[in-house]
């Protein structure tokens, strides 16, 4: 018999007793199953199209409890509520689907089923509602996802990574998916520009950071850009080499764990940066670089097969040449020293959440739906008087970040915050010794590079960079743009992503 007392306070009001032999108790962080465990066998998802079944079988198991011959009585099983994907009462069973960690970097969908009698259904139904409320918290249940797969992203395996590792997670969480493969460069811009934004909660890119860049820019081209960028969350299943968006949002490079992150992801406002050049205005969500990092990003396409290692290799090769990239730089500095930047980070990351902030953002966007005007004009306008001029004759590395992590183990901008209206501008002189440059690179994973005096850091709301040379590389979110003057200006919270915390990146802040 099922019993669940929802009126009483305390831990017991969350307990569901089935057939006097199994109890399922909702704790603060986990679902505790006490009683029987039973046979485990793989199944394919009911909702999945036939062509997906082979892949799903490999990633999905079901635990059937209640078949007495196989029962091993009095066992306890705790499932983290974060890992609960779905729960439902079918014709004769309670079915709970969850993500079971199978390796350090992987989860697979597992289902436990308990036979229930007709008279138990009402109580079980209301317990299922409580389970889902606790398991999802503020996250939207059953998100409607527009999935964009770049068949050529990263090592060219995005389609199979999606089918094998993400599709089963979305199916178990009852997400609605609409999958489309990009067929050419720029295709995601067109898709986003013409997207029915009321039909989807998020656009999921199965790619590297190049596709999200296109989706932000496609939404940015619409007459209702502000509304579209506020309403539609953009997120990434890591199928490229850097995958910065996934690392910052969910702290993983694993497709299955990122899929779980998307299912449980909280809408999070994201600062976007307008990049103006002579004839264009684009939006950047991740980073802008000039100098050694831009070259490592863009001049190493020929060694793409190396995966993430190509950045390190490119860096070392260029370091040996000890090149400088002369330029003029002017910055609208908001916080100019590292100690004050650390204070700003600590204050922002601990401040209480504003109630209803998401609905207020949506209302504001509906009132002024177009892309915000540029506060500081374009790159050919006069420089505002209150911008600081920074010497750039011997520039080695100009690197501005809107997110913390650029790729695995590269928490390059630990003090960035998703929505403080500021970007972190790093400058490093090209004359620093090779030894110092290598130490700096080696100390990125430990975070110690942040305090090295050779790394100059400013929090800024805008900057302008004018290269002196005629040829070279400028990288905006890893994409090459013309080698000419560009101006960057932050729009606070213009974009939307999904994150695990709803307020911070999954990166260790500055020490
Ligand atoms: N079918 C396609 N054929 C060719 N190019 C495509 C296709 N679909 C998308 N692209 C282009 O691939 C580019 C990069 O894709 P993606 O987002 O996977 O990043 P990436 O550069 O491969 O990532 P990483 O650098 O991290 O490996 C984008 O500029 C996009 O326009």
TrEMBL record:
A GO biological-process term: sphingosine biosynthetic process
Domain annotation DAGKc: ranges: 140-279
One Pfam short name: DAGK_cat
Gene3D superfamilies from the UniProt entry: 2.60.200.40, Probable inorganic polyphosphate/atp-NAD kinase, domain 1
Keywords: ATP-binding, Kinase, Nucleotide-binding, Transferase
Source organism of this protein record: Penicillium salamii
InterPro entries given in the database record: ATP-NAD_kinase_N, Diacylglycerol_kinase_cat_dom, DUF7493, Lipid_Phosphate_FormReg, NAD/diacylglycerol_kinase_sf, YegS/DAGK_C
Molecular function in Gene Ontology: ATP binding; lipid kinase activity
Protein name per Swiss-Prot or TrEMBL: DAGKc domain-containing protein
Annotated GO CC locations: cytoplasm; membrane
